[in-house]
UniProtKB/TrEMBL annotation:
Coiled coil: none annotated. One of its GO terms (cellular component) is membrane. One of its GO terms (biological process) is oligosaccharide biosynthetic process. Its main location: membrane. The chain crosses the membrane at residues 80-103, 109-130, 191-211, 223-244. This is Mannose-P-dolichol utilization defect 1 protein homolog. It is found in: Membrane. InterPro entries: MannP-dilichol_defect-1 (IPR016817), PQ-loop_rpt (IPR006603). It is a multi-pass membrane protein. It comes from Glossina pallidipes. Pfam families: PQ-loop. Belongs to the MPDU1 (TC 2.A.43.3) family.
Length: 272
């Protein structure tokens, strides 16, 4: 009987230790006593830290599928019309630079983990754009080149000051890339194969990342980067709302057979 009670006590302690380890994964060390010993669950600094952690992991979970709607839309239509390759390329460079900068600096995974999944999905979008623009070989070469680029940045072989500079350059890179996409939408007067779901998820993610960056890293470069990203994503989201009902014009050769009609159609804009 005594041995059974001892085993139950040890089992209870083991469960408590595991629960503590799980909680410590979501709360900073300084909040251990506040929550587990003093039971002050309304402590504002610790509550903000807990919310930041949970929000960070929620963003990571969401990032697993955030660009899948965009990928599927391009794949099903067999066209990347309306999606700017320059914007996607610059976005990929910015995401990878941010991932490497955060990883090498040892920031919590909850503050940057989504970039690893976003980088992969953005790479797939870039490959699809090249593939459907009749450059299949170039799409494979691009993938291999990107793999070497990402490994060099994340392997620790790139000096930290270089990564810091690249992270600083993310601000103009993001703005140029997003504004390039915004210009494409404005020029065509339609969203083409751009996924509205992806656009709004990216806007929500970048907005939430401002809060998590403030709470978990305090890095001013990262905070300014996400503020810039939020502004650019908001602009594209606004355009999606404005031009959502506009449809791409059919190719003139498919719609009209006469040369006179074809010439008339060529003078039109790309989207009705």
């Amino acid at each position: 009987m005594v041995k059974l009670e001892e085993n139950l006590r040890l089992g209870k302690q083991s469960v408590e230790e595991k629960l503590k380890q799980i909680l410590l994964f979501f709360i900073p060390d300084q909040c251990h006593d506040t929550y587990l010993l003093e039971h002050r669950f309304t402590d504002v600094p610790c509550f903000k830290a807990l919310v930041s952690k949970l929000l960070g992991f929620a963003i990571i979970a969401g990032s697993l599928l955030v660009k899948v709607p965009q990928i599927m839309k391009i794949y099903k239509s067999k066209s990347a019309e309306g999606v700017s390759f320059i914007a996607v390329l610059l976005d990929l460079i910015a995401i990878t630079s941010h991932m490497a900068y955060s990883y090498v600096n040892g920031y919590p995974f909850s503050s940057w983990g989504d970039t690893s999944f976003l980088a992969f999905q953005t790479l797939v979008i870039a490959e699809l754009i090249l593939y459907y623009q009749c450059y299949p070989i170039l799409s494979y070469v691009f993938s291999m080149a990107y793999g070497g680029f990402a490994y060099t940045l994340c392997s620790g072989k790139t000096p930290l000051h270089v990564l810091t500079t690249m992270q600083s350059l993310n601000i103009p890179i993001l703005l140029i890339g997003k504004l390039s996409q915004a210009f494409t939408i404005y020029q065509n007067r339609c969203v083409g194969q751009l996924s509205a779901v992806t656009v709004f998820l990216l806007l929500g993610g970048s907005l939430a990342r401002i809060f998590t960056s403030i709470e978990e890293t305090g890095d001013p470069i990262m905070i300014i980067t996400f503020c810039s990203s939020t502004f650019a994503n908001a602009l594209i989201a606004f355009q999606v709302i404005c031009f959502w009902n506009n449809k791409p014009a059919r190719n003139s050769e498919q719609t009209y057979t006469s040369a006179q009609s074809s010439a008339a159609v060529k003078g039109r804009t790309k989207c009705d």
